[in-house]
Write a structure and sequence with these properties.
InterPro entries: DUF7089. The longest helix is centred in the middle third of the chain and has 24 residues. Helix 1 runs parallel beside helix 4, helix 7 packs parallel to helix 11 and helix 9 runs antiparallel to helix 11. With 260 residues, the protein is of the alpha+beta class. 38% of the residues are buried. It has 12 helices and 6 strands. The chain has a 4-stranded mixed beta sheet with strand order 1-2-6-4, covered by helices on one side.
């Protein structure tokens, strides 16, 4: 199911700097959430498994089943929205998992994704948004006018954006020591700029759902590109410092404005 991945020199340097004990593996099949039987195969490559669990009262009654399962006592890894590379601290040492869907990606971009995951592991932040919002996830659910899937998507996006405010400080220092990764980071941001600038018009015309727009805008925070309103309000030191409380206030104000 899993095989230790050989890392390129730039990525290995990032691993040594930010997560020297992390194990990076290839997974033989794509996944959103690995069920316990498959997730436990990671035990063959690490010293111990330490399943995460969260209080049931943190979740609204209509929470998606996968989120409830992840928050419960089952040992599962990964959630929808994780992208091509997932990581977990439910293993000791932590594990970065590369999915087959990365096949065909340009090597510089893949190296950036791997480096990003290792930087996130080194920050010692929660691996999923429920560990970020905690009991405040119910407040976020009440702040939006979306169904459970839409609220999940917005929550995952907001957490991704908050992480991006932290990781981009690391990425911005790569020019001298890791120029290849710095170029890949900047190139990815440049490719997003036009799409991001068009988001308000796309939402207004009904071409893009608000949750999708939030996901793209928040994914862009790590690239330090200019965001349009209402997403520009997330590109602040206040969000970086106050996290979930700021995110919920932003959601309340944003959805009130959308409903006017």
């Amino acid at each position: 199911m899993f095989e230790v991945r050989e890392l390129s020199s730039p990525v290995e340097a990032i691993r040594e700097e930010h997560a020297p004990d992390a194990v990076v593996v290839d997974c033989e099949r794509d996944f959103e959430t690995l069920p316990p039987a498959q997730a436990e195969d990671l035990g063959l490559l690490v010293d111990a498994l330490e399943p995460a669990s969260y209080p049931a009262e943190w979740l609204p009654a209509n929470a998606p089943k996968l989120l409830a399962r992840y928050a419960g006592s089952d040992f599962t890894v990964g959630m929808p929205g994780d992208g091509s590379i997932a990581w977990t601290r439910q293993t000791d040492p932590p594990t970065v998992i590369v999915k087959p869907r990365v096949g065909g990606s340009p090597e510089p971009f893949l190296n950036f994704l791997l480096a990003e995951a290792l930087v996130e592991v080194g920050l010692d932040v929660p691996e999923q948004f429920i560990g970020f919002f905690e009991e405040e996830y119910r407040a976020l659910d009440q702040a939006t006018s979306l169904d459970s899937g839409g609220t999940y998507q917005v929550a995952a996006a907001l957490y991704d954006g908050w992480k991006g405010l932290h990781t981009r400080e690391v990425f911005a220092e790569w020019d001298d020591d890791h120029p290849e990764l710095a170029d890949a980071w900047q190139d990815a941001g440049t490719r997003l700029e036009d799409r991001v600038s068009e988001l308000p018009r796309a939402v207004a015309r009904g071409e893009t759902e608000f949750a999708d727009a939030t996901e793209l805008a928040c994914a862009s925070l790590k690239h330090a590109i200019e965001l349009p309103a209402p997403f520009a309000a997330l590109d602040t030191d206040a969000y970086r410092e106050h996290g979930p409380d700021y995110a919920i206030t932003w959601a309340e104000k944003t959805f009130d404005a959308l409903e006017e």
